[in-house]
Amino acid sequence: MLVQSEFFTEADGEPVAVENARGRGEVLLVCEHASRRLPERYGDLGLSEEALASHIAWDPGALAVARLMSKSLDATLIYQRFSRLIYDCNRPPESPAAIRDVSEVFRIPGNENLSEAERSRRTTALYMPFRDRIREEIEARRRRGQRTVFVTVHSFTPVYFGRERPVEIGILHDTDSRLADRMLEAAADTHLYRVERNEPYGPADGVTHTLEAHALPAGLLNVMIEIRNDLIADETGQGVAADFLTGLLRESLADVQG
Fold first, then answer.
1. 0.90 exceeded by the pTM?
2. Which helix (H) or strand (E) holds 70?
3. CA–CA dist 127, 146 (Å, integer)
4. Less packed terminus of the chain by CB within 10 Å, N or C?
5. What Gene3D superfamilies does the record point to (predicted)?
């Protein structure tokens, strides 16, 4: 609590947000990169507005899609209220990618030459409350006999280091592919999106940490969804993507036990 009070101002508020906390649906939605906001004490980290609005700071459109899915599925939604530039909550504390000093073409001056004390302060203030809130939610659902299907929602850029990415929706998984397999089968005949397995990232890239930390130990059906962010840049695109993914999940969960 002391670290929290020193880290955040009253204007900052809490690091973790929960919406539809009493949702009765089986899906639990998580959005690790929901926000581009920085805690007041960090200013702009020495970055331009262009950089702060870009994908290095957050996953544009991901929270909007997750919110629409939450309404359709009556799903509880947990998300991080601050930018991954301060701490990437989809990375463990020991990962160099948890706090980057360079992201694609951008240097991040405010993250350069950090002390171990500063890294620890950020971990305690941002990662640990996020991790603990997810754990608490899964345990509360277990106690009341509510099934949990664990789904994380992300977005990605259409171009990365100059290379175009033709995939439009990625269905990602770690060692448990039960739900991902069924979703890919259900999406095989769609003409709406190009849907692929473990693209544009996969477990080898370290992107499945949240699944590893929360879903795999509990044996929960789980999947990580990646949506190309140019497709969800406005309300229409967000609605279409949310409807598609909601339908895909419903169809798949009707056939998968877990």
1. yes
2. helix 62-73
3. 26
4. N
5. Zn-dependent exopeptidases
